[in-house]
Structure formats: structure tokens, C-alpha cells
Here is the input.
Amino acid sequence: MRRDRLVMLALADGHELGAALLPADGEEDEFAEPIRAAIVEPDQDELWVGDSVARWFRLKPGRCVKNGCLRAAGRMAEETFDSDAKLSFGPDNRRVLREGGAVRVFDGEWQTLLSVRAHETLGGAALGPAGLALVVDDDVVLLAPEACAGPEFAPSGWPQPKRLYSRELDECPDCPGPPLGCRRWRSYQDEVHNEALALLPDGAVVVHVDGETRAIRDGRQAWTTKTGGVGAVVQVGERVLGFSGGLEEDDPPALYALDLEGRPQWRTPLAMKGPDGFFFTDDVLLANAGATLLAGFETNIAVFALQ
Here is the structure.
């Protein structure tokens, strides 16, 4: 399978609608790594595609004749994208690029607005009217992007109190702290999960912490609900959705919903094997696209229609 070929399938029956090829980057070099798609992210009625040599393209889904559905949309000089790169969007056409231990925010012309780095671990990131929310070094952090311009910095309170750490493992030993006024608040959350978070309209950040779904607002716990939640948290309308590994030892995995104040709305058991003993939280899948929600663990996937 070619990693430079983008295939579009019909949702109804899975047949191929069209395909596009990422163009070669200059003269072909037999010793160079092959071009591949690193980022594919929906944006309105098109897709952003970022390839392994940090070129951007816009892809129009549907039938594609002679690569006419793919057009160049810029390049980030002297960069490459790894397979863990993720792109998301915020207000005022701003873009958030998360890759490795770093998060950068760009304007609509790909000019850097801020750049942050983790000392040890980096989790989810979300940009909304309230600011840029991050899970970084076991801190939940909310930044004010307009006050964070300048050199790259580390926004967390690492090393955390009463936690073992090693200076030799610090990924950013020379990083300064955030500029004055940049960090609105931070809250240390031991065992917080490093997957996607939800940034609510009131500025609360919702994450999974040790089997609970927890909202942090203004640096303090606003509410917490025992859900058995693992992995990502997703906001859909007036609800927060998550994947539960079970409330008790023998419980089946489930999909759950809370309202925006943490009150349980419903819980649907899933007919699949769930996490058992040691597992990685990124083995849990939870993602929504339009009116469809995907949930699963490892090779098991369930599809739901959202109403």
C-alpha cells in the first residue's frame, strides 16, 4: 500500500470515489524516505493534509480526476512531520499543531503565535474562546495565547511536588517558564490521562483521572464523576462523552454521557473486550465526525449515530 496515496470512500457502501497522489518533492532521491501523509484533518467541506516533509495541501473529497481535488497550500520550511503529528482548529482561523513533546499555535498564514514544550509528558490540547488548554507533565493548564508570544517555553510546574523525577530525562532543560500573564491557571492532577481533553464554553477543562471524569475550572476541581473513564474525552453539544473500562472489575466496557455539570445522562455497554490489567490508554478509540461517533478498544470498534 502506497503511503502517498489518499483514497476517498463512499460512506454508504465503502466503494472508492477517487484517489489523489502526493506529488514528489523535487528530484527523486532513491535514498530518501518515501513521501507519506502524516496529517489528515477535516476542515469545513475540505481536508487539510500534511505530508512527511511538512508540505500542506487542501483535499476536496469526492471524485478526483488527474489529481484535481488536491491543491498545494503552503510549506513549513526546514521541518518534517512525524506520524504522531496532530492538527486541530480554534477561533479566528487559528491552528494547533501537536507533535512529539511540543504544541504550536499558528494564525491563518501559518505564522507562529506561541510555542510550548513539555519537560516530560504531553497530552491533549484544545484551543477555544477561553484559551489554550493542555495536559502537560501531569498538569492541566489553561493559557491566554495573546500573552504567550515569544520564545518557546514550558508551561507546567514540573517537577511536581513529592514526585520522583530525573533531571537527565528532562526533554527541555533550558526552557523558561511562561511569560507574565500567559498562564491563566494550572492544576496538578496525578494520573491524568494524556489523550484528548474537552474545553467547555465556561473555560472548564474535562479530563480522565484515575477512573473519574473530572472538570477543572480556574485551577480548581469544579466536579468529578466516577465513570471508569479511560482515554479521550469528547464534547458533543451539551454532553461530555467518554469510553469506560467499567465501574467494577467484571463490568463490560461502555460508552457514557454526562451533562456539562458532570451529571450522568446515559451509559451503553459495548459488546467487545475492554481493558484488562495493564494497557495503554491510547489503545482506546473515541472520535466523532459529524453525526457519527466511533468508540473501541484495540481492534474492536463500535459505530454510533448521534442524535
